[in-house]
Design brief:
This protein is of the alpha+beta class and 184 residues long. The chain has one domain (2-180). 32% of the residues lie in helices and 25% in strands. The chain is built from 6 helices and 10 strands; from the N terminus they run βαααββββααββββαβ. It has helices spanning 12-23, 34-42, 49-58, 95-103, 105-114, 156-164, and strands spanning 2-7, 64-66, 78-82, 86-87, 90-91, 118-126, 130-135, 140-143, 150-153, 171-175. The strands form 2 sheets. Strands 1-10-2-3-6-7-8-9 form an 8-stranded antiparallel β-sheet, sandwiched between helices. β7 (130-135) and β8 form a beta hairpin. α1 packs across α6. 33% of the residues are buried.
């Protein structure tokens, strides 16, 4: 389902909060994550407690955000894609490969940088979204294909702020995860 374009204003922190609220987040949000827990278990990766907490807050938010991009029939300019990807009711055919890579060879690099156990959560970002992991202490680690450094964020709001610091926008339209509409 497409959510109509609304005005977004204020400083960047305020804009990010407005975007998250329009995407479906609210203070104290706690949704059923059984679909995601089953996905992780089926891949031999039981969810850590911090991953579960993160998913209860953010699973099922609108996955495609149209900020500077005004044409809704074009690709969204911002992704909020958590595993499993359920786009328009069809699983992304690259999803298993992404999850396998982010749980395998790339995970060791992230855990070395974090100094603790981590799990992949998906892709979040503007145009070239970051691969994102969560640590057992709840910090987010982002890896970008266009830079060597792994970045650490205290929460998803800080990550989104980093992503949007160069983006000029004053409104947003979004698309929901249709496979989850009315289910969480």
């Amino acid at each position: 389902m497409t959510k109509e374009r609304i005005p977004i204003s204020g400083d960047l922190g305020s804009k990010v909060k407005q975007l998250m609220e329009y995407a479906g987040w609210y203070e104290g949000r706690s949704v059923d994550i059984s679909i995601a827990e089953k996905y992780y278990a089926n891949h031999g990766v039981p969810m850590m407690k911090t991953t579960q907490r993160f998913y209860r807050k953010y699973f099922g938010l609108c996955c495609e955000w149209y900020l500077a991009q005004k044409k809704l029939n074009w690709a969204a300019d911002f992704e909020f894609a958590l595993f499993p990807y359920l786009v328009n009711g069809i699983k992304n055919h690259l999803e298993d490969a992404y999850f396998r890579d982010m749980s395998g060879c790339e995970l060791a690099e992230i855990e070395q940088a974090a100094g603790q156990k981590c799990q992949p959560i998906g892709h979040i970002g503007y145009y070239y979204p970051a691969e994102v992991w969560i640590s057992e202490y709840g910090k987010l680690y982002a890896k970008y294909e266009y830079q060597d450094e792994i970045e650490c964020f205290p929460d998803v709001f800080a990550l989104i702020e980093r992503e949007l610091r160069q983006c000029k926008f004053d409104s947003a339209a979004m698309k929901t995860v249709e496979a989850l509409d009315g289910k969480i």
